[in-house]
Specification:
This protein is α/β, with parallel strands linked by helices. It has 2 domains: 274 residues, 3-Layer(aba) Sandwich (Aminopeptidase); 156 residues, 3-Layer(bba) Sandwich (Glucose Oxidase, domain 1), CATH 3.50.30. The protein is built from 13 helices and 18 strands. It has an 8-stranded mixed β-sheet, with helices on both faces. An 8-stranded mixed β-sheet has the order 5-4-11-7-8-9-10-6. Strand 16, helix 11 and strand 17 form a beta-alpha-beta unit. It binds zinc ion.
């Protein structure tokens, strides 16, 4: 039975091979040339380039180096909160790794960053006559002030929008703890939209609560997933409004607190956080580059951010982006690809809080010419393509590269965002490009204790690195 099946499969494989050969021949005979809308001539698919890209993917999938790098970054170094000793250990490690890669130039950029520290494990509980005392898993939101060791308490008032809060007004909010509980929108295919629909509560909740006299805020985690992990992330204060402490609560915890509140709205809430802001410290971007053989003064950048939140290991956000960017350099060196333009890999610092790394990089390179800047900060998931912004010519050229990636199931070549760190290059003339990956699981991990090495799939991450290297190869060869 097995033998018959083997024969059957073999016959069909041969048939497919035959078909592929015929298709390739037909393509050769009909020619590869087509004009894009700007009159520039591009090959539809050059067999030479297809082969180079295939070699890039093969090498990326067969080498365990990027995965081992991610493991080291997550397990030996761990979460890399901006300003922390761990972040600097990460800086030194990336620097040494790049130094060992036969690049032409490896260096750091130094600048001051905030030094916010989380302090002790946060503690919170709600109390009502009906339910008694119930503890919740919470975390301080990034850059929040702490409550001090005694904590704070107040009656809970739940709202699902800033408009609701405004309607309640100072008479119903003063002295209380505002519970912001708008759930992330589940409807959209891209989970980023869901995140974007609710993250405003985390970023501006403390300011809005304090505006009406609240003493603290509890914020439902900005994520489409339902779990018991509080998800942190940056929040902001406004200098003209009193600063009050802010914590995140897990989505399941938020549902439970809402249930308590709906059945008995006389609920007291207590929380204790000892986070605080220390003096600024110096930190770094880490940069490695291969000098261009023909136009060394023109740069193609690939990067991710080295800092992360501290609750997890900064695996998907954005350890994978850093090791993928390093892997691009390794792939080019290993495959003997000599770029015409300078290829620069950047591990940015401080994306999560003030984006000092992205700002500093843009400021200090404003006299250089960047052709393209590519960021990978959507997690190490299956790549779907690229989103980009640029001139019509740049966009047309990028779209014309799509066919090279069909064999790797990349199909998304559309206008859109590049990434936070490279956004500061928006006036540089560079095309800004983001690696688009499958987003369905990203917010299961994002900014929470679940963002660990174990939750990264090796091959998915490697496919992302290969896609980046493939696109950079084409941009370098044909320009934008
Ligand atoms: Zn990120």
């Amino acid at each position: 039975m097995l033998r018959i099946l083997d024969k059957f499969v073999f016959y069909h494989i041969m048939k497919i091979k035959h078909l592929l050969l015929l298709t390739a021949l037909a393509a050769l005979l009909t020619g590869f040339i087509k004009n894009n809308e700007n009159g520039r001539v591009f090959s539809v698919v050059s067999p030479d380039d297809s082969l180079v890209i295939r070699n890039i993917y093969s090498e990326a999938l067969m080498s365990f180096e990027s995965y081992e790098n991610l493991k080291y970054l997550c397990k030996n170094i761990g979460g890399r909160l901006t300003g922390s000793a761990n972040a600097e250990t990460g800086v030194k490690w990336v620097y040494e790794k790049l130094k060992g890669m036969s690049l032409d130039n490896v260096y750091m950029q130094e600048f001051p960053v905030r030094n916010w520290v989380r302090g002790d494990k946060e503690y919170a509980y709600a109390e009502s006559k009906k339910y008694g005392k119930k503890e919740f898993n919470v975390c301080a939101l990034g850059t929040s002030i702490g409550t001090g060791v005694n904590g704070i308490s107040g009656k809970i008032v739940e709202v699902k929008s800033f408009e609701e809060l405004k309607k309640l007004g100072r008479e119903n909010v003063e002295g209380k703890i505002v519970f912001f509980n708008q759930a992330a929108d589940q409807k959209s295919y891209s989970t980023g939209y869901g995140y974007g629909s609710s993250v405003y509560q985390r970023v501006r909740g403390a300011v809005e609560g304090a505006r009406y006299g609240a003493v603290g805020v509890v914020v439902r985690s900005a994520t489409v997933c339902l779990d018991n992990n509080p998800h942190t992330g940056v929040m902001h204060y406004n200098d003209s409004i009193p600063k009050i402490p802010a914590i995140g609560i897990s989505t399941l915890g938020a549902d439970e607190l809402e249930k308590m509140f709906n059945e008995d709205n006389d609920i007291s809430f207590y929380f204790r956080t000892t986070c605080k802001q220390n003096d600024d410290v110096l930190s770094h971007n880490v940069i490695g580059e291969i000098k261009g053989s023909e136009k060394p003064e023109e740069v193609i950048l690939v990067g991710g951010h080295l800092d992360s939140w501290d609750l997890g290991e900064g695996a998907h956000d954005d350890g994978t982006g850093v090791v993928q960017s390093m892997e691009v350099m390794r792939l080019l060196v290993k495959l003997g690809i000599k770029p015409k333009h300078t290829i620069r890999c950047v591990a940015f610092m401080d994306e999560e809080i003030d984006q000092k790394g992205g700002r500093y990089y843009a400021e200090t390179t404003k006299n250089e010419k960047h052709i393209a800047a590519i960021e990978t900060d959507g997690g190490g998931f299956v790549p779907h393509g690229f989103s980009f912004s640029g001139t019509p010519e740049q966009v047309a050229a990028l779209k014309s590269y799509k066919e090279y990636f069909t064999p790797y199931w990349l199909h998304y070549f559309e206008n859109g965002g590049g990434g936070v760190d490279i956004s500061f290059l928006k006036n540089s003339g560079a095309a800004l490009i983001g690696l688009v990956v499958d987003s369905q699981r990203y917010f299961d991990y994002h900014h929470s204790a679940a963002d660990r090495f174990e939750n990264v799939n090796r091959r998915e991450m490697q496919l992302g690195a290969a896609s980046l290297a493939g696109l950079i190869y084409l941009i370098d060869k044909y320009g934008l």
